[in-house]
Each structure stands twice: as structure tokens, then as C-alpha cells.
Amino acid sequence: MATSRNGKIKVNRKKGGRNSRPLVGFIILAVLVVAAVFLIDGLLNQKRPEKKPEPPKVVARHKLPPRESAAEKEPVVHEDYTATVVPPPTERHVRPRPAGSGNLAIIIDDMGKGMQEARSIIDIGVPVTFSIIPGLPKVRQVAQEAQRRGIEAMIHLPMEPKGYPERRLEENGLLLSQSNDEIVVRMNGYFKEVPQAVGANNHMGSAFTENKEKMAIVLRVLKEKGLFFVDSKTSAISVGESTAREMGLRTASRSVFLDNIQDVGYISKQIRQAASIARKRGSAIAICHPHPATIQALAAELPKLRDEGVTLVPASSLVH
């Protein structure tokens, strides 16, 4: 401390002392703010539950359905068809096939178009009967092959159907408008083409077989030749079988048509139906045609029927 010239006391201060006070205050305030932040964060962390990490998400392009047992699977639908998933054999309830005896004749109509279909049917290896339409391209060859392989042959008589001429018929067919002599001439022409024939049945003929007078002409020629007649029953009121019996001609009628629908499953079912009739009645006659689906069904079913006890026989065995 010093005395000035005028007698006042002069106080000495350190340089910069007045400016240091705000700095100290600022530092203290900053420390307090930082302490407060840590304190608040600690309190919040104590109350907040620990968040468990989520499992990683798997992203797939296609979502797969849950697995199903074979018995629970639904039909698989495609754009153009529906296919049913078939359970494994160990999980399927398979009904036992019926067994029992019975005589079954299978007549294949419309034969004579080609040799390949004839050989395919013969190669099944069971007795069947070919019914050959006169006038078709391979009539003689099919008849000769059938004879060589032990297959019975018949003449498939083309006869006028209802709705003729809108409904087509072979040019050599038998018509109600023809004279009795013309019918006899045409019948004799058939035998020249198929001399191996042992019998005959009607091709179409829903109108012709209802006319007893015209049928009598046809049946008389068959009797003279020693042939039998099988009524294809294209009309529910056909007089073919009844007239043949009156004339003393060996005869029988068709029991089942196998291939009105050209589907293997349907035809197989019809074959089984024919076999069932044979078991119940002792015999049955089934008629079909050489369609690809029919040949496939015959090849699959006929050997099985034989193994089950059904006797496959030529048509001549079932006429009386």
C-alpha cells in the first residue's frame, strides 16, 4: 500500500485479477452441468429394462407351406389339369379285388382298318374275338393274322342306323329300303372277304335290328352258313336275338359296352363291371373298339381278371 502526493492511500492490485473471476465461475458451472447429465443418465438406465437383441430376420423369396402327412395332402391344381397326390401304398386302404369264376367274352368291333392295332390286341395274350367290317382296307390281312394266332373272327354286319343318311354308314351296308335279294347278295359278299368268320354281330343297325322281316333275311343266311349271331343291342327294342332263337340259330346279346367314353380309367371300370356280371350270371359278353385307350385298358385288366379266376373265352363259347 502507498501514499500518493495528495495524501490518499493507493492500493496495489495484481494484473489480471479482475478478469479471472468469470473464468472460474464458468468452469464450476460446466462441471455441475456435466455431473447433472451423468446423474440423469444413470437414473434413466436404472429404470429402463434391458432390451434383448432381436434374432436376425430371414428373408426368403418363396414362403414354404408347413409339411403335411401323405394322407392329408390335398389335390395339386395345375393350370391345365388336376392331379391327386397318391399316398404311399403302406398308407392306402386297398380294397381286395373280387375273386370268383365266370366266363367273359370280349368282342373287338370295327377291326380291319390296320394291322398294328390287331397285333397289339393279340399280343395281350388272352382269348378275344375280332369282329371285322367288310370293305375296310386291311380286312383280309387282319382275318388271316387272327386265324394264324388263334383269334376267333366274326363279320361286323353294317346295318342302317336311326337318322340315316345323316348318320354315316359304309357303302356296302344293309338298308331297310333294299330288296331281300339285294340283302342276300351283300351278305354273300361279306363271306368272301372274311371266309374265316364263325359268327356275326351288327355294326350300328339301331333301325335295321328293329325290323323283324329284314332281320329274318340276314339270320337265314347266317344259319345256312353255320354262323351264330350276337345282338350288339344298339337298340333297346332290337328283335335280333329273339328272332334268331325262333329260327333255331345260336345267339346271344351284348351285356356291356366298354368304351363309350375313350378314357382308360372309365374303360377299366367297365371291364370290371363286365367281369362282375360274368361272376353273377355265369357268363357275359362285352363289346369294345380298337381305340388306343381301349387297348391300354385291356392290356392292363384282362390278365388280372384271368389271374382272379375269370375265364376269358371266344364269343362262340357263349352262344346257344
From TrEMBL:
SUPFAM superfamilies: Glycoside hydrolase/deacetylase (SSF88713). The chain crosses the membrane at residues 23-44. It comes from the Bacteria. GO terms for biological process: carbohydrate metabolic process. Keywords: Membrane, Transmembrane, Transmembrane helix. The keyword Ligase does not apply. CDD domains: CE4_DAC2. InterPro entries: Divergent_DAC, Glyco_hydro/deAcase_b/a-brl. This is Divergent polysaccharide deacetylase family protein.
